[in-house]
């Protein structure tokens, strides 16, 4: 009995078949996405649902005389069946192309590059994870979601390019609920399960849960010192990533960071932002077929590089740097500061400790002004001690204030926050962020 082919070998076999089948002057690109994931849902600290998902798909693009069309195929994992599906998809695209106009912004990579990266460090045994979660959740109402397993990406083209990427990761996203319906939200994610680190993260959540027993502290609208935990800062950064670093958005003057890139505004010298592909779970190539490298987006408060995809490069005369679809960061890393996590409350003194934010939107996009709500565990702190939880409040402030003139310090410890999205399939996008101490945050109601 022959040994079953690995996912990479199956993909390579389909690529070789396709290269033999294509008829000049036709060209193709072929993308591959797959996951083998384990999902476990918790309620009241107990496993309520467990399952596995194994899926793989191809995205075939056929190009001829400047015209191109795509089709997505779900793979069966059987070589003969998958070749037949690819044959039918190819014929469908050949019939479609004559009906389409030429694309003036089509820019294919003609380089025959090769990339192979497999991050296959063993993931934690499920039984061990369940036992640690069970012990950590004793006596509290825990609701959560655990996902783990390998995610694979592949890319190939008729020009000879070939890329393969596999990343093993886990993500445990949970909330601890109090009987008064308030909750503390937390997460722990990565590629290497550290029992002590998980225990510390859970202990912090349990300590915050105890504070939710106290009567709510009422705040009037106004300006307050505040500490944004990494999860809260992630919400701010996620808004900025929607076009903030995009070459297309910057060229069309629709970026929320337009003033930063124009040199008309700046952030604090404490702020440096990188697209750090080399130390992340993200592949070293884009879905458009361009190698990716680390980029310095913001250095000490000043804008540097932007994310450039092939269409922006063709339209605006720029150089492609492997930006993913949408030209948004997928491996954003903010440089750490010098504030020790243990000293956050002392340094805050009197003000707000904000664990999470939600419902963010722009109140003035050209000014990078955001509005949103505090979420879950937000506390009033006096003289370096948590005194009481604070009811949900709305903030409205500019990024040029929060991460600019009013930024006092960043923590030396950073938290890896992986995308918890499972829509279509799990993702490898990540944010590596410190916490931020803000001298003045504006609450409006």
UniProtKB/TrEMBL annotation:
Protein keywords: Hydrolase, Protease
Biological processes annotated in GO: proteolysis
GO molecular function: metallopeptidase activity
Top-level taxon in the UniProt lineage: Bacteria
Pfam family, any one: PmbA_TldD_3rd
Residue ranges annotated for the Metalloprotease TldD/E C-terminal domain, each copy included: 221-443
InterPro entries per the UniProt record, alphabetical: Metalloprtase-TldD/E_C, TldD/PmbA_sf
Name assigned to this protein: Zn-dependent protease
């Amino acid at each position: 009995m022959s040994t079953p082919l690995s996912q990479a070998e199956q993909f390579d076999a389909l690529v070789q078949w396709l290269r033999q089948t294509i008829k000049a002057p036709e060209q193709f690109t072929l993308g591959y996405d797959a996951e083998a994931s384990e999902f476990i849902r918790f309620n009241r600290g107990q496993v309520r649902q467990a399952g596995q998902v194994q899926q793989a798909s191809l995205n075939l693009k056929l190009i001829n005389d400047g015209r191109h069309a795509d089709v997505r195929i779900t793979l069966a994992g059987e070589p003969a069946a998958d070749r037949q599906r690819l044959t039918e998809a190819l014929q469908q695209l050949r019939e479609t192309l004559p009906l389409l106009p030429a694309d003036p912004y089509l820019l294919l990579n003609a380089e025959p590059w090769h990339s192979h990266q497999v991050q296959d460090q063993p993931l934690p045994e499920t039984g061990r994870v369940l036992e640690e979660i069970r012990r950590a959740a004793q006596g509290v109402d825990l609701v959560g979601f655990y996902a783990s397993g390998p995610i694979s990406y592949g890319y190939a083209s008729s020009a000879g390019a070939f890329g393969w990427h596999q990343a093993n990761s886990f993500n445990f996203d949970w909330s601890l609920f109090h009987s008064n319906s308030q909750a503390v939200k937390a997460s722990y994610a990565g590629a290497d399960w550290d029992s002590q680190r998980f225990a510390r993260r859970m202990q912090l959540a349990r300590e915050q849960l105890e504070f939710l027993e106290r009567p709510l502290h009422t705040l009037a609208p106004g300006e307050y010192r505040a500490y944004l935990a990494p999860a809260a800062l992630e919400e701010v950064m996620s808004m900025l990533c929607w076009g903030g670093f995009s070459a297309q958005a910057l060229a069309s003057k629709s970026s929320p960071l337009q003033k930063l890139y124009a040199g008309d505004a700046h952030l604090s010298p404490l702020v440096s932002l990188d697209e750090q592909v080399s130390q992340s779970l993200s592949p070293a190539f884009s879905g458009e077929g361009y190698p990716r490298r680390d980029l310095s987006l913001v250095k000490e408060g000043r804008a540097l590089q932007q994310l450039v995809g092939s269409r922006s490069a063709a339209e605006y005369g720029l150089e492609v740097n492997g930006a993913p679809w949408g030209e948004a960061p997928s491996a954003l890393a903010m440089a750490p500061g010098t504030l020790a996590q243990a000293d956050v409350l002392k340094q805050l003194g009197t003000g707000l400790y904000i664990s999470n934010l939600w419902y963010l939107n722009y109140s003035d996009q050209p000014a990078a002004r955001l509005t949103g709500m505090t979420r879950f565990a937000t506390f009033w702190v006096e003289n370096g001690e948590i005194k009481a939880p604070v009811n949900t409040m709305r903030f409205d402030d500019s990024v040029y204030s929060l991460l600019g003139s009013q930024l006092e310090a960043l923590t030396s410890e950073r938290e890896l926050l992986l995308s918890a999205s499972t829509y279509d399939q799990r993702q490898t996008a990540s944010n590596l962020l410190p916490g931020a101490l803000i001298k003045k945050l504006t609450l409006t109601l």
